[in-house]
Hints:
Layout: H1 2-8, H2 11-29, H3 40-63, E1 75-79, E2 87-92, E3 95-100, E4 114-118, E5 124-128
Antiparallel strand pairs: 1-2, 2-3, 4-5
Amino acid sequence: MIIWILLNLPPLKLRSVIKHEIYETQKKKKIDYENDDPMSGVANLFDVAMIFAIGLLVVALTHFNLIELISDEDVTIVKNPDQENMEVIIKHEKKIEKLNLTQDVVTTSGTKFGTIYETDSGGWVLVKDESNK
């Protein structure tokens, strides 16, 4: 029906109808910049920065062979072994504990439990004393 009306219009009138339709269509497609939130772009930048930071953390842990710190494995790390500033880092499940070497001497009392022998293959064998049953 509309096509028949458009075909029966004189050429000048047809042009004005088409221009009016194009104008109305473009008017509907215009973006309303007044209601646009200027902070929405900042939120997207924050998301990108967080993803970048997490990626950088994973790369750093991989580079230093410490990927176990973000996995579920239990890990013990000894830093500066046999030196005065030796540290032991223990990760058990989600808890990470740092132990520092001290020069303190601990004295305790107890009874002899048994004797440990080292085998030729490098294993250890504990032999309990019969007197401590």
